[in-house]
Structures are given as C-alpha cells and as structure tokens.
C-alpha cells in the first residue's frame, strides 16, 4: 500500500502511535518514529526492523519548534522525502472537575496537544507545499466532539485539533494536501491497561459494544485515511468507537 512512501508518526513510542508506525511499516512505508521517550521509540524501531520494515527514531518534544523542524529534516535526510504524517502525540491531566485543574496542567496540555499539533502541521505543510503535496492525519478524541467530564482542558484541546484539521483541509486542498483526523473512544493503550480495574471497567461499560478498541484498530483507520482509497476525503474527523457517539 505504501511502498516507496515516507511517514512521520509522533507519539510513536507506545499506544496508537506505535501501532500506526508498525502498520505503515508493514505496508511498505519508511517510518520516522518520533517520541519524547528514547526507550519507547528505539524499541519500536527495533521491532519494526525485526519484522522486516524500515524505521528510524528521532527524539521529539512536539511543543518545541526546533525539535519539530528536526523531525522533518530527519525524514528527508534519512529517506529522501516525506509523503505523510500522523500527528498523534498528546498528554492529559488528572481526572478532576474544571475548577480543580492546576494552571501548570493547563499550560502543559495546551503546549503539547494544541501548540504541538499546530507546530507539526505547520512544518509538514510547509514541506508539502514545496514538494507536490502530502497527507496528514491528526489524532483527536470523541471528547473533541462532545463533552469530556473530568477532562475539560484535554477535551478543549481535542476540539481545537478538529478545528485545525478542518481549516487546514480547506486552505490547502488546491495544493494537493489532504488533512483528516481520527477520534477514538476509549482505547486499550498501555496507559489504560495500567489503570485500576474499576477505571477500565467504567470505560468498557460506557461503550455500547461493552469493550474498548485495540490500538491496531485505530491504526487501520489511520492507514486507510493515508491511502489512495480515501483520496477524495479531506477535512473529516472519523469517529472510531463502535457507535459510542450515538449512544
């Protein structure tokens, strides 16, 4: 599907980003695994290589403009080009009511989720404008489409990512740049698996299907949005929650 293509994936050291990097590599893409964790990123690169894929790790704090620019440069220096990007990295804050969110948590979540995603998009779009187009998928959340109780600031940043996605899609459609987003419901990430049973049971019970998604199920949709099979789709946010938004 992606033979000869080059992708960058942020937050690729674990969870959805890891599954996406592995999926794209398995489909033939050369992948820049970008993450703030050296250990996680290097492990993913080793596992991709063991499976016969091609990947390189670059340590990136997406809230840092210099890091983001270096990520794009690394892709071009390593593989000669960049065709697609998955802006997946993000953080949250402790589950508290809005008035209990610390200002330090507010700043951190905005810096990574909103500013970081914007910095990545800006750098990727600048490259794509000079090189004949490209494809971007952002990771938002169902809490970016509705309320996220006890996740107010996280939810607000995910709403903002939907806005960035829609605006960029319209602004750059004539430049052969597609921009979409995925909005997963609860997902069995390593962070989720580390939660107490009462937390994971709560999220599973809220889902109409009675289960959370696996990271690979999110990666499959991201890969489709990056493929030619979705070539007439841009500006969309695809929910991945087995009817959770409808319940």
Note down, in words, how this protein is organized.
The chain is of the alpha/beta class and 247 residues long. It has a 7-stranded parallel sheet with strand order 3-2-1-4-5-6-7, sandwiched between helices. The longest helix is centred in the middle third of the chain and has 28 residues, at 103-130. Helix 1 packs across helix 8 and helix 3 (65-79) runs parallel beside helix 4. It has one domain (6-186, 215-237): NAD(P)-binding Rossmann-like Domain (Rossmann fold). It is globular, with a radius of gyration of 17 Å. The N and C termini lie far apart (35 Å). Strand 2, helix 2 and strand 3 (54-59) form a beta-alpha-beta unit. It is built from 8 helices and 7 strands, in the order βαβαβαβαβαβαααβ.
Q: Characterize the main sheet.
A: 7 strands, parallel
Structural domains: how many = 1
CATH homologous superfamily annotation = NAD(P)-binding Rossmann-like Domain
Which strand order do you get reading across the main beta sheet? Answer: 3-2-1-4-5-6-7
State the helicity in percent bands: 40-55%
CATH topology: Rossmann fold
The residue ranges in which pLDDT falls below 50 over 5 or more consecutive positions are none
- Tell me how many strands there are: 7
Q: How many helical stretches? A: 8
Round the Cα radius of gyration to an integer and report it.
17 Å
What proportion of the residues form beta strands (DSSP E)?
A: 15-25%
Shape: globular
In CATH, what is the class? Alpha Beta
The computed structural class is alpha/beta
Distance between the termini: 35 Å
CATH architecture: 3-Layer(aba) Sandwich
Mean pLDDT: 95
The SSE string, one letter per element, is: EHEHEHEHEHEHHHE
């Amino acid at each position: 599907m992606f033979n000869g293509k080059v992708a960058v994936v942020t937050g690729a050291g674990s969870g959805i980003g890891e599954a996406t990097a592995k999926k794209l590599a398995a489909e033939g893409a050369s992948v820049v695994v970008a993450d703030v964790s050296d250990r996680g990123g290097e492990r993913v690169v080793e596992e991709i290589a063991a499976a016969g894929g091609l990947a390189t790790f670059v340590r990136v704090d997406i809230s840092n403009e210099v890091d983001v620019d270096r990520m794009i440069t690394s892709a071009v220096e390593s593989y000669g080009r960049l065709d697609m990007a998955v802006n997946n990295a993000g953080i949250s804050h402790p589950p508290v009511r809005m008035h209990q969110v610390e200002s330090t948590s507010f700043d951190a979540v905005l810096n990574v989720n909103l500013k970081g995603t914007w910095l990545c998009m800006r750098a990727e779009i600048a490259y794509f404008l000079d090189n004949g187009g490209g494809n971007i998928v952002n990771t938002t959340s169902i809490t970016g489409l509705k309320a996220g109780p006890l996740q107010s600031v996280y939810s607000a940043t995910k709403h903002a990512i939907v806005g960035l996605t829609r605006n960029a899609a319209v602004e750059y459609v004539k430049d052969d740049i597609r921009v979409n987003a995925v909005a997963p419901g609860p997902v069995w990430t390593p962070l989720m698996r580390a939660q107490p049973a009462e937390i994971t049971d709560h999220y599973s019970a809220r889902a109409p299907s009675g289960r959370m998604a696996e990271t690979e199920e999110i990666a499959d949709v991201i890969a489709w949005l990056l493929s030619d099979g979705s070539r007439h789709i841009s500006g969309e946010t695809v929910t991945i929650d087995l009817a959770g938004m409808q319940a």
